[in-house]
């Protein structure tokens, strides 16, 4: 796909400094882009590559425009403009609609004629698959699932019974939606399974990463609202609810019945305990453990960054006595106060 | 399924306050249950829904019986009684026994006539599958595996060679049992693979979550005893042994050769180092890192709950100097002692 | 396979104390090895089993040779020598070359005649599969992938389009290579997908654990160099680069664009933030969170080991006031200095 630079500028609603008749074909990084390709500058870490880029055109913000030796597209949000440009410039592979010979599809499944069901898929009873849906190879769709228009299951995705996906979702390989939640009642030391009767309900424009698992609800549904984005190896337990446009990075886990608001971000390896309420616009940095509700917007952290092993050992040893240290400090404070005649300043 | 309330009370060994001839059909939460449905009350967080419930009958403990506007079943352990009631009231889907046409089954596999092998499964040589076993779609059972009666593999489960599952196990999609352990010897900076020759041995009534992995032993077996329950995305390394009725929540990991006792619980994201011994009735809260053995029963923790990012930054900065703080405190203590004539009280 | 002990000693370049004509068949632990089997001693934890072993021969270091009641092979690196011995003594199953009937293979795929493609695999367009490659059951290989000689995909592995594997790699079940990276641009609160156009490039002799995920690059490639070893449930984000012979234990995650050097080790559940540079020979203990670059060799840690729950609660409560404690200490120090006339010693 070759696009005229002037047309690209217009489509992206960016200001062009350069030749509108230049043809742009493809994208690249500042270091690797060749003549004819578009690049972008948004992370200051890579500033050193800006002055020597061989790209045809660079998307950047107003402040950097003068530093760039080639044509520029000025944008308030260069990364966003780049995302749109790349989507325009790179063609995605076309799939032939239809059901592969090796797919095993129940007679009662309703599959739109424009949908694709690839090789070695298994589709259960009463499944409904909408227009232009792509089911990649090796997927298992259990009975009574519903998949909205234009949703894509890349490969080897499992949807357990009654899972509902909205439109334009993208589910990566190995993801499992709708497995039983971890519901156990204790009978004098032995665990008794609590039937998991709810479903997984996924809204529109949701992306779910590779090998991520989302359990079905115990009684009511586990819900991912519109625009939720989950990275790989994320664990969403039963009856969790994740609000619109919340993004959760890799290896994070949310325990049962916790409600997360809209427009939140969870850094990688974050863990949320069960039965919490997290408000809108709450942000947790990576590897944070969340054990209480955070109903109001804010930025929260809780972890111990790496340090040299010897220093860390000393610190941990001291930490074990922190309570005693605090008590001693109090006593000394009192003693000093007495010595100084009531003032400790 | 409709069950007479009197019959239900008897089967659950609960005390009924209400009309024994009421017919109960299905279950629901306190908020959502409709007339004819059974609900339960066990988590005080949801007390507010008790007084306005529309359920036909609620399972609860003696203290709450008077607060409930509808019929009640009084139980010492309402959640357990609910688990049993739900199992009685909700029918599970029936599977047709037999081997799907698209399944690829070795001639030397012995499959009970009452077992199900679903579409796109691959079953290797000398595999033995017991009565009423359900192998869902897309499973791979390598050679010499053994699966006990009534065990269910939901879908896309992998059992590597020689894996042994007891009776009444339930394995969720994407789980991998019997992959090689992470055994590496170092040869002047290069890693040399150590053959992994043990097996995975799983007892009876074990549940294993979605995308959980359990590695085969290096020489002897990795063992999960009867009644062990593993949530999703749990990692069990080679030669780990997990005792009876121990439950491990999502995203936890246990490193090689660690032995965990019976009736333990591990919160989500807990990590156990290798070669440890954990006794019976040991409980770790979520996201705890365990670096030494805990041979005796108890409740242990080790993590840093989330706080406001600015406060956390200050705390971490201070932590880096905790050893110096402790030393200074000691010096000051001595000085104060000298000033006060030997007493620092 | 039976091997003469003298031949084994020679092949392993170890010094034999014992009868060179003994025939060795198989391997076992010090406790379980029977007459005719080889064992090894390298972990002092298991010293108590050395004196009573029934093994035919034990590989160990010079210092322990005199403690062992049976024949010994003396080695500077007993674990390495054992790894080699076990590889010689244990036969691995042979696979029949060829393409299974139930595999679905594109006409344009080039598959070496000595390669195996097992049941229920799906192989896309223009895929190239080298000599003696083993593709186990249920794998999905998308278009334009390339797999080098002698590489093995055990079962149910997914290679997304354009993934490149070198020679002698071993990929365990459920691993997903080449899924989209988590690239999102924010448009006034809504996430817009950034096309992920790079590939996954894997060198030679790389091992990748069960259910591990390695995302494709955004523009350039995600790279695992020769000899990299990844355990289960590891998450490698887009554009990460891992240097030669680096080993990463289970449940670890590396965020986008971080470069890890050669000969590093990451303990289990370790997390690396994005855009960092980790030098060669850097070692992180388990559950360490890495938020800054560590360009130089060393051993680093950052976590809070488990302690009794009550003590931990007190410690966490004190930690929340650590900044105030530090400030108070400073004030008291000053006051004491004034009292002692300028000296606080």
Describe this structure in words.
The structure is a homotrimer of 345-residue chains. With 345 residues, the first copy, chain A, is α/β, with parallel strands linked by helices. Chain A has four helices and 39 strands. Helices cover 14% and strands 28% of the residues of chain A. In chain A, the strands form six sheets. An eleven-stranded parallel sheet of chain A has the order 7-10-13-16-19-24-27-30-33-36-38, with no helix packed on it. In chain A, a hairpin with a 2-residue loop joins strand 21 and strand 22 (190-193). The longest helix of chain A is centred in the last third of the chain and has 18 residues, at 322-339. Strand 38 of chain B pairs antiparallel with strand 39 (307-308) of chain C, so a sheet runs across the interface.
Would you spell out the secondary-structure blueprint of this structure?
3 copies of one chain form a homotrimer.
Chain A (H helix, E strand, L loop, with lengths): L2 E2 H8 L2 E3 L5 E2 L13 E3 L16 E4 L10 E4 L3 H12 L8 E2 L4 E2 L4 E2 L4 E2 L4 E2 L4 E2 L4 E2 L4 E2 L4 E2 L4 E2 L4 E2 L4 E2 L4 E2 L4 E4 L4 E4 L2 E4 L6 E3 L4 E2 L4 E3 L6 E3 L4 E2 L4 E2 L4 E2 L4 E2 L4 E2 L4 E2 L4 E2 L4 E2 L4 E2 L3 E3 L4 E2 L7 E4 L5 E2 H11 L2 H18 L6
Total count of helical runs of at least 4 residues of chain A:
4
Rounded average pLDDT of chain A: 96
Structural class of chain A: alpha/beta
Strand coverage percent of chain A: 25-35%
Q: Give the overall silhouette of chain A.
A: flat
Secondary structure: number of strands of chain A: 39
Rg over CA atoms of chain A: 27 Å
Q: What percent of the residues of chain A sit in helical stretches (DSSP H or I)?
A: 10-25%
Oligomer: homotrimer
- What gap, in angstroms, lies between the N and C termini of chain A? 73 Å
